């Protein structure tokens, strides 16, 4: 065999042998508000997650559900955490188990007095970093009105959400927002600015569940 | 901008003065600028022309080599065809000539039989004696008075009638025998006719082969002489072959894609893992490898059958070893086809499981849809996919034939295309050389237009008094008229 042929063959074998090293897994954290009036929305939220998100989570992906409540930075706020198996049938079984956990979460009685959104985001950021996933998403189900407990300090670093896409779904309009829509819009814009300054790759507010599924399925 | 103004309060005056100064400076530098432009044009134009010339010669060289390769390939193909034709004729003639003595013997026997039969039938039949006249004469005899005489005469008459009957009967029998003999010769005639037709077929086949060989020889001679018509014919047939084989390979590629779809999903179940190679999951790579293995097995089968000649070494192996390779490749292909059929069944089951999961996750809302979708969950799609999974590998295995054609014809087509491309580039560079030449000329004229006022003044002064010293020493000029002559474009 001549040298060029040997080289070409070696190159082919090397190309096939080496992996591209990039993580193709995806990690998703869903933050669910259980404070105030939003606590009543849990059934609807779980339905959206079950039908819109779970079917689109692929084998090898990670999925977390974190409660937004009193002290959301606490690990006890994590309601569900799962990394799906690479084998699709096992991943399907895990999805079914996760759906069961979501149902139990929807049925359990809970109503928090405070809304620690930043704490939940900080906790989500840590979980996302730990997964080393190639694509990271945070989906927030909340009215986005933060009410921190007394003494709680929350600040997001400039690279806290580096490379993370953030979606706010079903942002509930409060009574004051109906009277003054500018307040609602300002609140959304403030959160957008704050998360973008924390390094978020994108910030988007979604109204319809179908739109959420499409956004989630879109390749980036 | 204001900094440039000599008198900031009078910008127009400043600009005019600046313009005049610039014109005088440019006018002073006219000759070196013209020379510089000419040199630049000559260098750039020359470089472009050089590259264009090189590209043209490279294109011609490539075209020449392509022509040689094409003619050589055509010559080899013609030789192979002639060899095949001669082998066919030799085989056919050997077979025909081997049968010829038997044929000749049968023909002789048939002819002899016919001759004998004819001779036998030609034997003169017993002639009917003149009994009728005798009987008539007897019958017309006058009745004699004597009873004894009359009795004798009657007896003679009876005997004559009986003899007549006997003679007629013998005559008829002889005629019937002759007819029978002649009737017996009919099958012999048919046999002779069949034998002659056989001979005619053999002769026609030989004549047809001869005319084919004549045609091949004619084309072969043209190719050997390197005639343009032969080259054009070869090029056209090669292009046709390339297009057809490309189409067939593309169709096979479509089949491969369908095959891939059948295998990819179940392979993710069999080869799980988060690894990626060039952005493709390992399971997909595994599915692709299975399909490529089927193609490889197919190539080996075709190769060992002698249909394709992609690997000359395989063709040179002894028949026994080739048979072993053929059996191994065929078994491998069969196993791969069986694996694919089972994977197709697994795929259907996995899809059903996925569908059930999606419905379960969707909950109450999808229950109605589930009922609608139920009739589709029959076994027909599964059987169809299994059959498809088994058949597609065999179809893919046949890709070796068009692939070989594509490789062979692609070499000529790509070579020709490359030669055309290089030629086109050469033309482009030549155009660039002309463009540079005229661009430099235009620049020279634009420069002259800019200094048109001092230039015209200089010309007027030169005409009036040639003794006025020029800013450039005329002796330094190679061409004394260069000082005021219009710009000459570089050659």
Would you give an account of this structure?
The complex is a heterodimer of chains A (220) and B (491). Chain A has helices at 3-17, 42-53, 88-107, 117-131, 175-179, 181-197, 209-217; strands at residues 26-33, 62-68, 78-83, 135-141, 164-169, 202-206. Chain A has 220 residues and is α/β, with parallel strands linked by helices. Chain A has one domain (23-217): 3-Layer(aba) Sandwich (Rossmann fold), CATH 3.40.50.410. A 6-stranded mixed beta sheet of chain A has the order 3-2-1-4-5-6, with helices on both faces. In chain A, strand 1, helix 2 and strand 2 form a beta-alpha-beta unit. With 491 residues, chain B is mainly alpha-helical. Chain B has 12 helices and 2 strands, in the order αααααββααααααα. The relative contact order of chain B is 0.11.
Radius of gyration of chain A: 20 Å
What is the CATH architecture annotation of chain A?
Answer: 3-Layer(aba) Sandwich
Give the end-to-end Cα distance of chain A, rounded to a whole number of Å. Answer: 44 Å
Overall helicity of chain B: over 70%
